[in-house]
Amino acid sequence: MPIAIYLAVRDRSFFSLIIMSAAGALTALIPFALPVFSLSNYLAWFGIVATKPTDGEMVTKALRYGIFFLLPPMILVAQRIISLNKAGTWELDKIFAYAISTLAGAAGCIYLASKPGAGMYYVLPFAPLIADMIVLVCRENAHVMPKKKHVIPSIVCGLLIAVMFVTSIPIQKRFVRALEWDRTTNIQKDLHAIMSKFEDASIHMGMGDKYQGYNNTLQKTELIFEGNPYVVDFGVMIETSKLGIPLPKLLVDRLSRCEIDMWLIPRGEQPFEMTGYYENTVVDKEFKEAFLKYYQKTDQSEYFDIWQCSRP
User: Fold this and answer.
1) Which residues have C-beta within 8 Å of that of residue 288, sequence separation ≥ 6?
2) 202, 262 in Cβ contact below 8 A?
């Protein structure tokens, strides 16, 4: 959007803004063309997130990292105000509009990143724009300062870039470690082996009682994209249970009717007993009781216990 605003102001035309906004909206809507993704549910989630309380520790962390995203557009806005004031004209300026829109967008994402369960990765789409802002800040200083003093803004910009780069290294290292490519690949192979063994069964991913096992369930997309049902997301339930949103009775009814042939529970764990990030019970007692009543463990793979419907 900031780039679209920049082009619209530069060309004094809303055509580019309309075209780029439409292209962005269509791109964002592409996943919802698949039946597994519900647009109405996605939009409803925004209302749920808005009710989440802002966490003080998360706010501090968001501001600590967010300042690197906010500082370049803030400096650029200040520079443009000074330049426009000196020029004696306050007509709409493309750089000013570009910086203001970037600042507003980044600030909004930082606010969302301060919510429990969120994170600074919300702001990453602005990283290329912020890099461009740093270059523009350097250019702006080069225009207004004497040639002998050009080195000062260059050093400042260089230091800012270096600080952003250095502070990103620990985060990227943690991210790479968290990917665990080998283990992830093995889990995916395990899921495909289960689907091959029970090729006529409908299979759904469940959850156990530990975070390590829960991380294994994140590969549930392997099941979903092979056409298996996706009626409940326990990652989402961690959030909804904290907010006091009750589990739909329809889910319990599905269990009693054995609409899903088989559930996968992380190996060696108790089904649906995990405590959420907020130290809250994730899965309702009614759901767990129905599951244990109508399903039993019948098999085991490398990473999962296999629970099948016990009804005749």
Assistant:
1) 271, 272, 273
2) yes
